[in-house]
Amino acid sequence: NAGVMQNPRHLVRRRGQEARLRCSPMKGHSHVYWYRQLPEEGLKFMVYLQKENIIDESGMPKERFSAEFPKEGPSILRIQQVVRGDSAAYFCASSPQASGSSYNEQFFGPGTRLTVL
Amino acid sequence: KNQVEQSPQSLIILEGKNCTLQCNYTVSPFSNLRWYKQDTGRGPVSLTIMTFSENTKSNGRYTATLDADTKQSSLHITASQLSDSASYICVVSGSSGGSYIPTFGRGTSLIVHP
Question: Can you list the positions of beta strands (E) in A27-99?
Answer without folding.
Answer: 31-37, 43-50, 53-56, 65-68, 75-79, 88-95
